[in-house]
UniProtKB/TrEMBL annotation:
Statement: the UniProt record of this protein carries the keyword Lipid metabolism: yes
Keywords: Lipid metabolism, Lyase
Lipid metabolism in keyword set: yes
Protein's UniProt name: Enoyl-CoA hydratase family protein
Alphabetized SUPFAM superfamilies for the sequence: ClpP/crotonase (SSF52096)
Family listed: Belongs to the enoyl-CoA hydratase/isomerase family.
NCBIfam families: PRK07938.1
Organism: Amycolatopsis minnesotensis
Pfam families in the record: ECH_1 (PF00378)
C-alpha cells in the first residue's frame, strides 16, 4: 500500500506515504491519506500523528499523468475531492499532526503541511505551488498559513519555491535538521506531545481550530472552483499536456 500506519511507541502513530518515483499521488492515494489520518485520530490510544514520506521527496502533488490518461473528468474531480479529503483529515484530526518534510513539497504537499499542526523539515526541503504552470489553482489557502500574504502571492504567481530555513525564519517550520535526523526529530517532538494528557491535548486542538481566522475548508474549495473553470476554457488541458510532454523528453 502507498500509505501505511505504524505505532513505533505508545501514543504515536506514524503515517508513511510511499508512491514511487516522486510521491505524486493518484486519486486513491489522497483518499488513503484521509482514511489513515482519520482512523488514527479516532483511535483513543493515539495521542499524536507523524505524517512522513519515503523516497525522493515528501510530496509532488497530484498524479497529472493519471488525469491526462482519463478521457473524461472523473480523475480530475477525484483528485480535487481526494485532496480536499486529505487536507481536511489533517486539519480535523482530533490529535496534533506533525509533518516531517524532506526534499520537495509541492502542490498537494503544501495542502498537507499547511494544515498540519507542526512542521519539522530537513535542511534540503523546499516548498512551492507549481499550480499556475499546470493550469490549476489551489492550496494558496495553505501556503498562506506558511508565509506572509505578499510573499504567498509572489510565490504563487511565479510558481517559485521557498526552502526550510526561510520558512523557519517566518515561524511556520518549527525545526530544521539534517535529512538523516528528520525522523528522529519528528519522533522526539511527538514523544513530548504524546506524554501529555491526551484529553487536554485533544481539547486544545479543538479549541485552536475553533479560533482559527481562516476557514480552510471553504477557502480551498473556493479555489478549486476556478480550476474547473480553467478546464472548461481548455487552459488546464494545454498546461497538463505540456507538462506530460516535457516529462517524456526528460
Amino acid at each position: 500500500m502507498p500509505v501505511t500506519t505504524k505505532y513505533p511507541e505508545p501514543g504515536v502513530a506514524v503515517i508513511t506515504v510511499d508512491e514511487p518515483p516522486v510521491n505524486a499521488l493518484p486519486v486513491r492515494g489522497w483518499f488513503d491519506i484521509a482514511h489513515e489520518v482519520t482512523a488514527a485520530g479516532q483511535d483513543t490510544a493515539c495521542h499524536v500523528v507523524v505524517l512522513r514520506a519515503e523516497g525522493r521527496g515528501f510530496n509532488a502533488g497530484v498524479d497529472i499523468k493519471e488525469i491526462q490518461r482519463d478521457s473524461g473528468y472523473d480523475k480530475l474531480v477525484g483528485a480535487n475531492r481526494g485532496c480536499a479529503a486529505a487536507f481536511s483529515a489533517v486539519y480535523d484530526c482530533p490529535v496534533p499532526v506533525i509533518a516531517a518534510v524532506r526534499g520537495f513539497c509541492l502542490g498537494g504537499g503544501i495542502g498537507l503541511v499547511g494544515n498540519a499542526d507542526v512542521v519539522v523539515a530537513a535542511d534540503d526541503a523546499t516548498f512551492g505551488l507549481p499550480e499556475v504552470d499546470r493550469g490549476a489553482l489551489g492550496a494558496a489557502t495553505h501556503l498562506a498559513r506558511l508565509v506572509p500574504q505578499h510573499l504567498m502571492r509572489a510565490l504563487y504567481y511565479t510558481a517559485s519555491t521557498i526552502d526550510a530555513h526561510q520558512l523557519h525564519h517566518h515561524g511556520s517550520v518549527y525545526q530544521v535538521v539534517p535529512p538523516d535526523r528528520l525522523d528522529e526529530a519528528a519522533l522526539a517532538l511527538a514523544h513530548r506531545i504524546a506524554a501529555k494528557d491526551t484529553r487536554v491535548i485533544r481539547a486544545a486542538k479543538h479549541a485552536i481550530n475553533g479560533i482559527d481566522p481562516q476557514q480552510v475548508h471553504r477557502s480551498y474549495r473556493y479555489e478549486q472552483g476556478f480550476t474547473f473553470e480553467l478546464n472548461l476554457t481548455g487552459a488546464s488541458d494545454e498546461a497538463r499536456r505540456r507538462f506530460v510532454d516535457e516529462g517524456k523528453g526528460a
